[in-house]
Design a protein that fits this description.
The protein has 430 residues and is mainly α. It has 19 helices and nine strands. Bound molecules: (2R)-2,3-dihydroxypropanoic acid (DGY). Residues 78, 168, 173, 197 line the site of (2R)-2,3-dihydroxypropanoic acid.
Amino acid sequence: MQTLTDTRVDALDSEARRILRLNDRGGYTVPTDGLYPYQWNWDSAFAALGFAAFDADRAWTELETLMAGQWQNGMLPHIQFHQEDAGYFPGPGVWGTEGAPGKGAGRVASSGITQPPVAASFALRTYAKDGAAGQDRLRALFPRLMKLHRWFMDSRAESGAIAIVHPWESGRDNAPDWDSAMAAFEPEGVEPYTRRDTGHVDPRMRPTKADYDRYIWLVQFGRDTDWDDAAFAERSPFRVADPTMTFTLMRASRDLVGIARILDEPTEEIEGWIARLEAGAETLWNEKTGCYDSRNLRTGELSGCVSNASFLGWWGGLRQGQPTETLHRVLADARYAVPSFDPADPRFDSLRYWRGPVWGVMNMMVSTGLHEAGLTDEAERIRRDTVALIDQNGFAEYFDPQDGTPAGGGTFTWTAAIWLGWASPTAQER
Ligand code: DGY
């Protein structure tokens, strides 16, 4: 890769800042105009990472509006519907969370499922940029973050690893990880619906209809059971332990220990969660593939999937027995790292969302973890590839790992955010 000139770096930094401002809806940021017109949970936390590079006050506000949408039971919804938008399906009426006992009264309209919990990680990052000035804002967020992590450990951690109740929770919506669990039930009784996503982007870059029918079936299951955690645990056909959730929560819990120390709060409870998650992570190890995998908790079977989430253990803070060999193989097989799915696997699909494309946010977490663990060559390879993808193809939602084709939504918040917070040479200097 050619080294970028200072002028080019300035132009990319300024374009990334422009995108964050463009997607700012006043206190919260949408992932991208059109395709995703609301506040998404982990997209928003990543937005804070981006804002923290140039406007710490705005980064705190992002985290505050995000955490204000927390349910009474501690769950943080994956979408907050701040205003109506006919361009998105499924909207608040389909989710039907109003009146759900777990939600509690007077909260913003929302979905009924969660997403990878990265908020504590980027709250600590924001504090690092803002120093003592941010202490009060960090203190105000702390009880909400504790409640969120406690909710995960109480309602999703029966195997030690963190279970998802809907593929959308993992953030890796249509990853092959969920194929067998999704095929195990028929989406009978799905009410007629019209997809909106394929009106915004090429259907080849999006999940299939078979997936979508089941996504909506699972939403109806949640609505029919009043979004009750116990009903999901006991009766839903879909319950899969996910490395994305497990490792982001592990990392966020370590960061929460850091926050607790800054605030002079006790850390024992959080340390107990970390120990349970570490033991749970071992249940995701797949001897055959030599990396972390997902596990269908209804059948006990591992999915046999090598994905970008397979390499999040370093980000989670693990050092022993990590999948270095498998990582080397996948890096050798991809022109641009890290493909979201193993290019050597027949299920790989270079443009279809989480079945192949490269995602900047995953690259940021994988590379940062590798860097912290001293695997600097691998970490730098991933960062350089991310720089090249963005330099050549813009701030797209995701990219083809074989030729860099930009895919999904354009002018994407989290791609801009990881540029400013990590990939840009100026972020490295900072
Ligand atoms: C979508 O609509 O594709 C989202 O990923 C669901 O959260």
